[in-house]
């Protein structure tokens, strides 16, 4: 049995980032890492642009100007202004080449075809210069940047429709067990609805990993061997739930061994999730999680999360941890370190009732895991505890 620290260390050391690339439509690139520097194909803005509603002026010594035209956003015509002439202009509109300043409308007095400003102004006032944000041929975004909604909007404004990004891993989720059936089917005696696959798929989607396929296998060695072999060959990450213990119908460990999967560890001194396996074959990482749902999800956040971040070459690869003040008492049973479902808020944390590894009701309320190390057996109100913040 391995310690939590050693298990995490083995994951970090054994997984190397993937630098495979793929082309994504810009609207589907959120959350991906740019594979190359992006060069701007245009100036942004692509013309001198009005920063506000007002009047574009060809400056002269007087405070009075003759109003000759109007330019709205999207207009393509270019009025020619002589010194002392002005055009009505609106935010985002192209500033005529012969205009050299814009006065906001609140500081203008309009009398028929003449306007009067209340003071002399400097050239280029309220004009966004050509290429102010980025110039044609310059780097718009550097490689290695994680794309977010703002980046998607920015790149779209440059006319970019697709980008080269670091490919996210192909992931297979395999659930095992004769007792598992699909929701929507009437339960027979001894059966339960299978939930781990949807739970883990949703957790992956929440982290913006969408290349996920779901597979189910009965407690049959040959079928387990066949499915695992296929999944390992066609995916970067395989997550298995159930079948990793040593019962008569737990075939996952035996199948992984026959497939020559290199075991990095099996069984971690922790609760929940003691029967946790991590191994590799070629470039595929394999996690076999406990079948109990709460244990499986805890192991996902503590271990699989790290593997995913490492695959994407991210600098922050563990979930954030905070020191929080406990607002309840808790007595730990046994000598194993524990991860406890909890609610964290403003520096305080409440350890929830119902910590059984088979129960998800408590987990559904939790936004954190409180970690109790091996040498701590009791938590009292106002004690400081280490708290892992779960993704929201």
Q: How would you sum up this structure, described in words?
A:
19% of the residues lie in helices and 30% in strands. With 392 residues, it is α+β, with helices and mostly antiparallel strands. The protein has 4 domains: 160 residues, MoaB/Mog-like domain (Molybdenum Cofactor Biosythetic Enzyme, Chain A, 3-Layer(aba) Sandwich), CATH 3.40.980; 58 residues, Molybdopterin biosynthesis moea protein, domain 2, CATH 3.90.105.10; 80 residues, Beta Complex (Molybdopterin biosynthesis moeA protein, domain 3), CATH 2.170.190; 69 residues, Beta-clip (Beta Barrel), CATH 2.40.340. A hairpin with a 2-residue loop joins β19 and β20. The longest helix has 19 residues. It is elongated. Its EC number is 2.10.1.1. GO terms for molecular function: metal ion binding; molybdopterin molybdotransferase activity. Belongs to the MoeA family.
Features:
single chain, 392 residues, Molybdenum Cofactor Biosythetic Enzyme, Chain A, Molybdopterin biosynthesis moea protein, domain 2, Molybdopterin biosynthesis moeA protein, domain 3, 27 strands, 19% helix
Brief account:
Its EC number is 2.10.1.1. The protein has helices spanning 4-14, 149-157, 196-206, 221-234, 252-258, 293-311, 361-365, and strands spanning 21-25, 38-39, 49-50, 54-57, 64-71, 85-89, 101-104, 108-111, 114-117, 127-128, 139-141, 162-166, 171-176, 180-181, 192-193, 212-217, 237-241, 262-266, 277-281, 284-289, 321-326, 330-331, 338-345, 348-351, 368-372, 378-379, 384-389. With 392 residues, the chain is of the alpha+beta class.
């Amino acid at each position: 049995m391995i310690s939590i620290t050693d298990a995490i260390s083995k994951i970090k050391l054994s997984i190397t980032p993937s630098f495979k690339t793929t082309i994504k439509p810009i609207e589907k690139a959120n959350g991906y890492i740019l594979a190359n520097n992006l060069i701007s194909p245009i100036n942004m803005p692509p013309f001198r642009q009005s920063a506000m509603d007002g009047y574009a002026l060809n400056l002269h010594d007087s405070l009075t100007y003759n109003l000759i035209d109007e330019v709205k956003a999207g207009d393509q015509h270019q009025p020619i202004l002589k010194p002392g002439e002005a055009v009505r202009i609106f935010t985002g509109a192209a500033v005529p080449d012969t205009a050299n300043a814009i006065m906001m409308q609140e500081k203008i007095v309009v009398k028929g075809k003449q306007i009067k400003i209340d003071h002399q102004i400097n050239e280029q006032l309220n004009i966004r210069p050509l290429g102010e944000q980025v110039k044609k041929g310059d780097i718009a975004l550097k490689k290695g940047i994680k794309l977010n909604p703002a980046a998607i909007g920015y790149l779209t404004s440059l006319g970019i429709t697709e980008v080269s990004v670091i490919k996210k891993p192909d992931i297979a989720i395999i659930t095992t067990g004769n007792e598992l059936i699909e929701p929507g089917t009437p339960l027979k005696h001894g059966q339960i609805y299978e939930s781990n696959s949807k739970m883990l798929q949703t957790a992956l989607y929440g982290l913006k990993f969408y290349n996920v396929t779901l597979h189910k296998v009965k407690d049959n060695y040959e079928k387990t061997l066949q499915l695992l072999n296929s999944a390992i060959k066609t995916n970067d990450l395989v997550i298995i739930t159930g079948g990793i213990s040593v019962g008569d119908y737990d075939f996952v460990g035996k199948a992984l061994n026959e497939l020559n999967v290199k075991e990095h560890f099996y069984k971690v001194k922790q609760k929940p999730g003691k029967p946790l396996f991590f191994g590799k074959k070629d470039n595929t990482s394999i996690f076999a999680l406990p079948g109990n749902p709460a244990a499986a999800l805890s192991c996902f956040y503590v271990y699989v999360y790290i593997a995913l971040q490492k695959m994407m070459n991210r600098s922050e690869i563990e979930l954030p941890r905070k020191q929080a003040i406990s607002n309840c008492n808790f007595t730990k049973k046994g000598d194993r370190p524990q991860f406890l479902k909890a609610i964290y808020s403003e520096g305080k944390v409440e350890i929830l009732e119902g910590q059984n590894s088979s129960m998800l009701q408590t987990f559904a309320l939790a936004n954190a895991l409180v970690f109790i190390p091996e040498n701590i057996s009791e938590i009292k109100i106002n004690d400081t505890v280490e708290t892992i913040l779960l993704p929201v």
